[in-house]
UniProtKB/TrEMBL annotation:
Keywords: CBS domain. Residues 121-140 are annotated as: Disordered. This is CBS domain-containing protein. PANTHER family: CBS DOMAIN-CONTAINING PROTEIN, CBS DOMAIN-CONTAINING PROTEIN CBSX3, MITOCHONDRIAL. Residues 7-63, 71-127 form the CBS domain.
């Protein structure tokens, strides 16, 4: 099965200039924990609820500051032709819960661990990915 079979294709994005508070409200309204960030239509990064807390609130960045100041740059991405199992392995290896799917530089979808788990509850890839992602990071 390909990621295109399970991904969310109508992905809401924001730009690097979108204010942090506006992105937080967008996350609440969409009931999501991350939003891909674009710059001139190309993927520039991803902003997560955790980024807002750790890089924004904790660092006392003003809520009207552009999200480009706190986003996660160079996100791990997948391609539309990748298998679901490949996506799960990539997510596990990088300890991420959401994988933007890009075609060239354009965001065409996003896959979450939930998407993988729901497509086939008996598939062990989602469980294995969750287990890997949930492991504590090793200290430097």
């Amino acid at each position: 099965m390909k990621v295109t079979d399970i991904m969310t294709a109508q992905v809401e994005t924001c730009t690097t200039e979108t204010p942090i508070q506006e992105v937080a409200v967008q996350m609440v309204n969409l009931d999501v924990g991350s939003i891909p960030v674009t710059d001139n239509g190309k993927l520039a990064g991803i902003i997560t609820d955790r980024d807002i807390v750790t890089r924004g609130v904790a660092a006392q960045v003003p809520f009207d500051a552009p999200v480009g100041q706190i986003l996660s740059k160079n996100p791990v991405t997948g391609s539309p032709d990748m298998d679901v199992e490949e996506a799960a392995e990539l997510m596990a290896a990088n300890q991420i819960r959401r994988l933007p799917i890009v075609d060239g530089d354009q965001v065409v979808g996003i896959v979450s661990l939930g998407d993988i788990a729901v497509k086939d509850p008996s598939d062990q890839h989602a469980g294995e990915a969750i287990e890997e992602i949930s492991k504590p990071s090793e200290q430097d």
